[in-house]
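DM from R.C. (forwarded with permission)

"hey, sorry to bug you on a friday — could you get me a structure for this? deadline for the figure draft is monday and I only need the backbone to look sensible"
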Amino acid sequence: MAGKDTSRHPVEMVSWEDAGQFCEKLSAMPKERAARRLYRLPTEAEWEYGCRVGSTTKWFFGDEEAGLGDHAWFSGNAGWMTHAVGEKRPNAWGLYDMYGNVWEWCMDWYGGDFYRQSRPVDPVGPPGGSYRVYRGGSWYYTARYCRSAGRYCEPGFRYYFLGLRVVCEVSLPSQAVSSPQPPAPRPSSAPTATGSSRPVRRRPQSPPSTPKKPRSTKPPGRSTSASLWKRSTPSA
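My reply, with the result:
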């Protein structure tokens, strides 16, 4: 994007390993260590908990796709490129760009039915696997891929629509008493867009050297729309 100020655009072309190394280096900075701040990728449960803000609809603002343009940069309005963060409306907790702009890596390995048997609160994904999960959709994809319940996975490649969002943990001094935080609920499976809870398996593809308008806006990895917010009501 020659001549365009991209200083506030989200980082992209980031692998899962790149994202982890960034968090480690940021956590090791003297100011961050002095402030007892630790940075990491969110778990899937944390990501969706923060995205939904208690909602059970397709998007945190409701079920009407027409509202997505007010909250996200996606294939319908992005013009085939990323945009500065914070230009669209946030959710009720003040989190911007939970949908669209760039996909966001999560900490967890992918597990299709793992969350049916996981612990009920603040679960972490499977102990191992072949694929890492990313969430949220991007400028490259249509509205159906930018939903709260959408889950997709890759072995860790770099793509021009893959980025990250970090979690900051603050360790308080031992004498301080922290207020309890609400836990993220246990994930569990919900039907995919095709009515099946089985993920679609696809061979990961290497990204082209420069972005091109896609023939299809289907994510390159395996996919399922299993919900990570299933305390009482299934996802749409």
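R.C.: lifesaver. The radius of gyration is 17 Å.
me: no worries. The beta strands are 37-40, 103-109, 132-135, 151-154, 162-164, 167-170, 222-224.
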